[in-house]
Amino acid sequence: MKKDYSIGVFDSGVGGTTVLKIMAEILPHENMIYYADSGNAPYGKKTVEELQSLCFNIMDFFLKNRCKAVVIACNTATAAALTAIKERYDIPVIGVITPGSKAAANISKNGHIAVLATPFTANSNAYGEEIKKFAKKASVYQEGCSELCTMIEEGWETFEDRGEILDGHISQFPGSADTLVLGCTHYPIIREDIEKYFSGKIVDPARETVIELIESLRDEDMLNNSKEKGKIEFFVSGDKEQFRRTAEKFLGFEVKKLYQIEK
């Protein structure tokens, strides 16, 4: 394992670019491989067994392509497979749920925390369990949204009923909730719209996840000390051009090295 090996980042689609964007800002000298498994999306409707199988395949891909660490930039995959992945592979693997839970517990003033997530993540109670590790008396309200990921992947602005759908989900939370966790990495892409329907504090776990990654790499003495800008490669199992359009709009830079991969 060498310091100039890549950091693997994966999600069921474009959502994980919300984490990648911050990684590229804070760790500009690291090489990164982003794997968008949009050909197998949506993850939120799959079983634990299906998700773990998909995650193992992606982990194998990363190891073949010389990755020194992996970020699961997907809440659903984190909930379903993080523990199994850590048992199976011996490189640092960071999920998004623990960093997001810790941040929410620290930010909330009254301990009433809402979580907007996929149906799988909400039903797994992963955030409920994790938040209570940091705030034992917290009340956690989780809402599973079956349609949001697909709408974001296909082009959020093209759906005329997007506000109505979003309001329908957010209105399920009690008025006492003072903090909302974006429990799916797709959701920061539509944060401006979410803010129209939720007036409290909003937690995007991305930055805290990257901080945990840095600490892990530092502990292993594996931070890249090169002065050159790192390269970022993208692999997509679904519609490559659709991914490019949405990713470039959010990332703010051109997606140059983009490759199709079998799902």
From TrEMBL:
Single GO biological process annotation from the record: regulation of cell shape
Reactions catalysed according to its record: L-glutamate = D-glutamate
Function text: Provides the (R)-glutamate required for cell wall biosynthesis.
Listed InterPro entries: Asp/Glu/hydantoin_racemase (IPR015942), Asp/Glu_race (IPR001920), Asp/Glu_racemase_AS_1 (IPR018187), Asp/Glu_racemase_AS_2 (IPR033134), Glu_race (IPR004391)
Xref: PROSITE patterns: ASP_GLU_RACEMASE_1 (PS00923), ASP_GLU_RACEMASE_2 (PS00924)
Name used for this protein in its record: Glutamate racemase
Binding site for substrate: D11, S12, Y43, G44, N75, T76, T185, H186
Family to which the UniProt record says this protein belongs: Belongs to the aspartate/glutamate racemases family.
Gene Ontology MF terms: glutamate racemase activity
Pfam families associated with the record: Asp_Glu_race (PF01177)
Cited Gene3D superfamilies: 3.40.50.1860
Keywords of the record: Cell shape, Cell wall biogenesis/degradation, Isomerase, Peptidoglycan synthesis
Active site (record annotation): C74 (proton donor/acceptor), C184 (proton donor/acceptor)
Protein encoded by which gene: murI
Organism: Fusobacterium ulcerans 12-1B
Pathway: Cell wall biogenesis; peptidoglycan biosynthesis
Keyword Cell wall biogenesis/degradation attributed: yes
Documented EC number(s): 5.1.1.3
